[in-house]
Amino acid sequence: MNFRGSRVREEPEINFIPLIDVLLVILIFLMVTTTYQRVAELQITLPEADADQMKQRPKEINIGVDVQGRYVIDRTVFQFTTVNALAETLTRAAAGANDAVVIINADANSTHQSVIHVMEAARLAGLTHITFATQTTGK
């Protein structure tokens, strides 16, 4: 006895469209992340050279500026009167070195004007290389 009747059974199909989509995404991922090596087409032998010794570092002039506007030039306290007096002190500290580097160590809370005084004095003294010292935050 056949209780189920005569139903036609459908054959299961494999849906290839999602499979193709996944394979395309994988293919794109592999193409983007692949590193290509350059194949050397020419055999090149680079020339050799002997370099001169590195020239000495330029003279550094350290200037400290605190919150009250006091200046310290190479560990010597300077009482600020005018920018010209500060320029003369910088010229003496440079000792004839035109390529001396002025390093400004200004307090974070010092006034903008006190730093501008140092920059103007360096310009008057003919010292064009100026940099600022900073510190990293301790995170």
What are the salient characteristics of this protein?
16% strand; 139 residues; five-stranded mixed beta sheet; alpha/beta; 5 strands
How would you sum up this structure, described in words?
This protein is an alpha/beta fold and 139 residues long. The protein is 30% helix and 16% strand. The protein has a five-stranded mixed sheet with strand order 3-2-1-4-5, with helices on one face. The model has no long low-confidence stretch (mean pLDDT 82).
The helix content is 25-40%
Q: How many extended strands?
A: 5
- Regions with pLDDT < 50 over 5+ consecutive residues? none
- Give me the side-by-side strand order of the main sheet: 3-2-1-4-5
Radius of gyration, in Å, reads: 37 Å
Summarize the structure.
With 139 residues, the protein is of the alpha/beta class. It has three helices and five strands.
Helix-strand blueprint:
Blueprint: H1 17-33, E1 60-65, E2 71-73, E3 76-78, H2 83-94, E4 101-106, H3 112-124, E5 129-132
Parallel strand pairs: 1-4, 4-5
Antiparallel strand pairs: 1-2, 2-3
Helix pairs in contact: 2-3
